[in-house]
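Shipment paperwork, digital attachment
Item: protein structure file
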Amino acid sequence: MLFIFFKGTWRLRSTTIKETDMSNILEISASGRTQGSLTRQLTGELIDALGDQLGDANVTRRDLAAGLSFVDDQWIAANFTAPEDRSEEQRSALAESDALVDELRAADIVVIGAPMYNFSIPAVLKAWIDMITRARLTFRYSENGPEGLIKGKKAYVVVAAGGVAIDSAADFATPYLRHALSFVGIDDVEVISASQAGKSTEEVLDAARTQIAELVDAQPARRVA
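Attachment content:
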């Protein structure tokens, strides 16, 4: 299968379809920009490319720029209380986190747009990670150490940066995201670089689009039977 860029759109020249039940995509947008965001543009194009393979894919969009709670004393107390012993207030304190975990569990593919802010990830993306990293819910401690419980998923992470090269010594965002996702069980992570170090915006977009085409091409095409 090959993606080609034709008259402003990505098109499939050929494809092979495997009949499976993978059809749920979760998009996590962390950019503070709602307009002119490289990560938002590229995650949108990536989801379109995946949709060409999946057919009628269900896409859930979580825009973190709209706001997300941070871990506080009430949240911590509720999280460390056994579910059957939680008060109504404690259940309410965890309701947002529970909803985010449910979204993640329901997804077959997770697409994250992560601009690099001051060498790391936006605070609101860190808040999302804090909200979905839950002992006994998304990971557990075993005799062999921590074990992620969110398994069987694939993640694509679009990382955009200004003058920092992705996976360079100054990039603390990309390795952190790989580790955080792996910690909850998502080991199959592909990173799409949108670094502007020494490149124009168009060069960055072209390079990222090439990565998208290659990655989606390498992933077996899937569609709901």
